[in-house]
Design goal:
It is globular, with a radius of gyration of 23 Å. It is built from 17 helices and 18 strands. With 455 residues, the chain is of the alpha/beta class. The two termini are 42 Å apart. The strands form three sheets. It has a seven-stranded parallel sheet, with helices on both faces. Strands 10-11-9-12-13-8-14 form a seven-stranded parallel sheet, with helices on both faces. The protein folds into three domains: 203 residues, Rossmann fold, CATH 3.40.50; 151 residues, P-loop containing nucleotide triphosphate hydrolases (Rossmann fold), CATH 3.40.50.300; 74 residues, Alpha-Beta Plaits (2-Layer Sandwich). Belongs to the DEAD box helicase family. Keywords: ATP-binding, Helicase, Hydrolase, Nucleotide-binding.
């Protein structure tokens, strides 16, 4: 098969790196936007999360990078720390064929002073949240004069979170001569206004596959409020889902549903705005690596989530409007995969439902939920916590190597590995959890003993 990234006339080593990352064919968003963005043109891209947009803006950033010029050349703004971290990881992967590229994240929720120290040591690319980036600008910690590219990722979410003024202040500090790429799931008046103020003769690109019925199968069920929790196992069974995200409107509802689901024999985690950053990170790790196959979340807490392979989204509560509904269902059917989104509503919520139906005319209204007793959702993995991370020079390969050598695990027995500055997580097939826990505590990883705990 021909790797059609070759059509972009990238350097051979860049094509080889893309191929090693299993990027065989461009997504629609990449195919439409890259010919323009690689020419240095400003672009506005309307595309849902999971459409390949991160690669779409990262390829031009990496392609034009001058690694010998040790100065910030690209600034990427994201709505949340989680998304910023994920974007930074993706850019680092795309830079693997270039030596000594420094990608720095500047986000809230983590200590400020270490970021100041990192900025003193320079960087090529900065990925951050508007509030924290603006704070560094206001304290003269960051040099912006060499920036030639600005990316606004999930611009609609940043505006929803009240970042308009912050974004405009940041842009006032940037060089006027630059390329700007704006990515947004929606293109409403606020995005139109923002883009008209900051882009120069932009090319507008729309992904026609944004939340189409062929990709996301949407079903609505009218139910009584007190029936909702007992219907969840049936919905999960009917979809044969392995990963489920349940949305609620209130934090107190998350706690209530979690208790009810646990009593029904399911493992779940909760994501709400009460969690501090470390617990939030751990919750996302446990869900994304399938140790806990169900996550219950509020809309505020779920902003900026970038988790693949969510089979089923359940709107336990109807979203407050079609914009929030679009955001919710976009968590499934990512990167061209199919997904199912189910909404439970009561008679009193029909006005909201009809508003959503105007945006999504292919919604199916179901009367009953079929029984599927043969399927039971179970977690395939367990997660181990290791009290060592990036600051200890710990890498995923070190953990894998120790597990294979000491616990006799096969590579397929080891799932996701997430490495943070001072700690790490590794997913292990649950039948090997006790063996892996014992061996990691008894043996050195990269020449050093670490404490390992189950999660």
């Amino acid at each position: 098969m021909i790797n059609n990234f070759k059509l972009l006339q990238l350097k051979e080593e860049f094509i080889i790196n893309l191929d090693s990352l299993e990027y065989k064919f461009m997504t629609k968003v990449q195919e439409k936007s890259l010919p323009y963005s690689l020419e240095g043109k400003d672009v506005i891209v309307q595309a849902k999360t999971g459409s390949g947009k991160t690669v779409a803006f990262s390829i031009p950033v990496v392609n034009k990078l001058n690694v010998k010029k040790f100065a910030i050349q690209t600034l990427v703004l994201c709505p949340t720390r989680e998304l910023a971290n994920q974007v930074a990881i993706q850019i680092k992967k795309l830079c693997r064929h270039i030596h000594n590229v420094k990608v720095l994240t500047l986000c809230g929720g983590v200590p400020f002073k270490p970021q100041v120290a990192s900025l003193r040591h320079k960087a090529h690319i900065v990925v951050g949240t508007p509030g924290r980036v603006l704070k560094h600008i206001s304290e003269n910690n960051i040099e912006l004069e060499n920036i030639n590219t600005l990316v606004l990722d999930e611009a609609d979410k940043m505006l929803d979170m009240g970042f308009y003024e912050d974004i405009m202040q940041i842009i006032e500090s940037l060089p006027k001569k630059r390329q700007t790429m704006l990515f947004s799931a929606t293109y409403e008046k606020n995005i139109e206004e923002l883009s008209s103020n900051i882009l120069n003769e932009p090319i507008f690109i729309q992904d026609e596959e944004v939340h189409t019925n062929e990709v996301i199968n949407q079903k609505f069920y009218e139910v009584k409020q007190e029936e909702k929790s007992e219907l969840l196992p049936k919905l999960i069974s009917l979809a044969k889902a392995k990963s489920v995200l349940i949305f609620c409107n209130l934090k107190i509802s998350c706690e209530k549903i979690a208790d009810e689901i646990f009593e029904l024999g399911y493992d779940c985690v909760i994501l709400n705005s009460d969690l501090d950053q470390k617990l939030r990170d751990e919750t996302l790790v446990l869900f994304s690596n399938k140790s806990y196959p169900i996550m219950i979340a509020t809309d505020v807490a779920s902003r900026g989530l970038d988790i693949d392979n969510i089979d089923l989204v359940i709107n336990y509560d109807v979203a407050k409007d079609e914009k929030v509904h679009t955001h919710r269902i976009g968590r499934t059917a990512r990167a061209g995969a199919n997904g199912i989104a189910v909404t439970l509503y009561t008679k009193d919520e029909m006005d909201k439902v009809l508003e959503i139906k105007e945006k999504f005319p292919h919604i199916v209204f179901e009367k009953t939920i079929q029984e599927e007793d043969s399927y039971k959702l179970e977690s395939l993995y367990r997660t181990l916590y290791i009290n060592g991370g990036k600051k200890h020079k710990l890498r995923a390969g070190d953990i894998v190597g120790t597990l294979i050598a000491t616990a006799n695990l096969a590579k397929d027995d080891i799932g996701n590995i997430d490495i943070f500055p001072f700690h790490s997580y590794v997913a292990i097939k649950k039948e090997f959890e006790k063996t892996a826990l014992k061996k990691l505590n008894q043996n050195k990883i990269k020449g050093k003993f670490y404490k390992v705990y189950p999660r």
